[in-house]
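Appendix B. Chain record.
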Amino acid sequence: MRKKISVLSDSSLLIEFFSEENISDFSFKLGKKLKEKFSFITDTVPTFSSVAIYFALDEDILHCKKLIEDFIDNQSNLIFNKGNDTIRVLHTIPVNYNGKDLHRVSEEKKLNIKELIDIHSNKIYSVQFLGFIPGFAYLGTLDNKISLPRKKNPDKNVLKGSVAIAENYTAIYPVTSPGGWNIIGHTKYEILNEKFSVKFKPGDKVKFVSI
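Structure tokens predicted for this chain:
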């Protein structure tokens, strides 16, 4: 797998990986291993194809970059070992499949409602990265049978707890907000706790259960 390590700022690096496969689990495990190995790393943020690494401001960024690059090269066989894959945290999400776009999606994909629900719920998804709004987790990879683009005309008001799909991802809206994803259901599962921190972390697993 090709990689590229570049300087983001005086105190951060970005490791990018180039692969046709979904490597979000690998990115999470690499970020965890690097943080365990090097005390100068203050935080890591894995995504579906990269890991951002943050340091204290007084660290020599180029020296850190060399150490990290050598570590990845020397430990690649261990890090890339897919036989050690484990579920970090599994979130089970109860869903009422009653979304405003459910029937339209079933018609566009030429599936009946039950087939659509079964395809969406019969899979364990990975939290690949967080973005868009706080707590909005991109969960992948969505089955191609129910994959479709975002709406051309986004909704001005998507309710908190809306379960949606777009492109290769499914997601839950953590708060009420504008959005252009296709709404297929709703859940009462709280993604943000009382301190407004996010329950989902990259590398976590998510399973939807129809209710």
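Further analysis of this model is presented in Appendix C.
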